[in-house]
Design brief:
With 416 residues, this protein is an alpha/beta fold. The protein contains 13 helices and 23 strands.
């Protein structure tokens, strides 16, 4: 039975780095993701004066509940949204002058709901160019805490950043949320905060975070469920079988719910205590599915949708328009390049059954576009990518691992 080598979760690794940096003591992270995003996060912590030690299988972070160890720093967040949103929030709890910038791609992505909330909490924060975007400067003097209202309808990362800040404030936080997308990611945050010694209460649409700080711990990073979606989809679309160990009934990540979509389409799914197996049955049914809570896997479904026996309609995914690229438009553009009939709206995409023809995929520098259409390539030889290397953001070894899986199934895979 083929076993997919899935690296550690990007979302879990980023949260763990924040919590470890904020904790009292030395935290050991076991099997963290090593990719451009997470290396950038760790580099950002180092620039802020935190000590981060690394071995091939573990990272150790010497936490500082009082905030950054240096009075000023210039941090480049690369392409990482978690880095770009979490690190300024962490720095706000300290005392000093900190400047944050990011790649051109990340500069285009929104920050306004988060920075507005931080300002409402008294943080002296200034956007240096476009309001609501990087670069920005934080003149940190600690955070008193109190009540704040947040719109997390574009990204749950805004809420996660404030939740993780809460214990570092003097009074704690009451965060009233007016809108929320990708809610399972907030579940990850709350569970991880518990592992570091902080219990968050929820009162309707308000999250109540106590002051008091975090405890250092040893924390194992589970495999990335979003990345696993490509391997699960590959099995479903080729009639093969794959198992991902480390992702089972106790998994934190909501994106494991992608296998339920594959089950609705006709694949066989077994979820055990610590592993999940998907078997393709040789046929896929068309579906209409709301992917608001698992929107990072929307491109995965779009890329295999042409092989279903009826239309595949994906709804409630407007937030995918403000990711690394406009993923709704990118999926539609590339499916049309493959000769597939597609329609889109503000928050939906519908893909008709078809026989994709080989073409070059325009990746827009988005790792998920590459990895998703690699799955299409299992049934459509000749697909190429204009920027295959952008997978380094979350899975530098993707092409090799995916090629090995395909070879084990006896499927020749074009070199990326």
């Amino acid at each position: 039975m083929p076993v997919a080598p899935i690296p550690g979760s990007k979302s879990v690794t980023a949260r763990a780095l924040f919590l470890a940096a904020a904790a009292d003591g030395v935290t050991t992270l076991v099997r963290p993701l090593r990719s451009d995003d997470t290396e950038g996060f760790a580099e950002g912590l180092t620039r802020l004066g935190y000590r981060v030690g690394r071995t091939p299988d573990t990272w150790q972070v010497d936490g500082r509940p009082q905030g950054p160890a240096v009075p000023e720093a210039d941090v480049h967040c690369r392409d990482g949204a978690t880095t770009a949103r979490f690190l300024p929030t962490l720095a706000a709890a300290g005392h000093g002058s900190y400047r944050f910038d990011a790649s051109e791609q990340m500069r285009r992505r929104p920050l306004a709901p988060l920075t507005r909330a931080l300002r409402d909490l008294g943080v002296d924060l200034r956007h240096e160019a476009a309001e609501g975007h990087h670069p920005l400067r934080v003149e940190a003097a600690g955070v008193e805490g109190g009540e704040v209202t947040l719109d997390a309808g574009q990204s749950s990362q805004y809420l996660t950043a404030l939740l993780m800040l809460g214990p570092l404030t003097r009074r704690g936080l009451r965060i009233r949320v007016t809108d929320l997308v990708s809610a399972p990611y907030v579940g990850i945050t709350l569970a991880m905060m518990r592992s570091f010694g902080v219990q968050v209460a929820r009162e309707g649409d308000t999250f109540v975070v106590p002051p008091g700080g975090y405890r250092a711990t040893t924390y194992a990073i589970e495999p990335d469920a979003s990345t696993a979606s490509y391997f699960f989809a590959a099995a479903a679309v080729t009639g093969r079988e794959v198992t991902v160990p480390g992702l089972g009934q106790g998994a934190l990540q909501g994106d494991l719910g992608f296998v339920d979509v594959l089950r609705r389409m006709g694949a066989e799914v077994e979820t055990g205590a610590d592993r999940t197996t998907v078997r393709g049955t040789g046929a896929l049914r068309g579906v209409t599915v709301n992917m608001r809570d698992i929107s990072d896997t929307m491109p995965t479904l779009a890329a295999v949708a042409p092989f279903a026996d009826g239309p595949v309609r994906i709804e409630d995914v407007a937030n995918t328009r403000v990711k690394e690229c406009d993923r709704l438009d990118a999926c539609a553009e590339n499916l049309r390049r493959l000769g597939v009939e597609v329609a889109t709206g503000e928050d939906w995409i519908e893909i008709r059954p078809g026989s994709p023809a080989p073409a070059e995929i325009r990746t827009h520098g988005d790792h998920r576009i590459v990895m998703s259409f690699a799955v299409t390539g299992l049934r459509t030889p000749g697909i190429t990518f204009d920027d295959p290397g952008c997978v380094k953001k979350t899975f530098p070894g993707f092409h090799e691992a995916f090629g090995e899986l395909a070879a084990g199934w006896g499927i020749p895979l074009d070199a990326a």
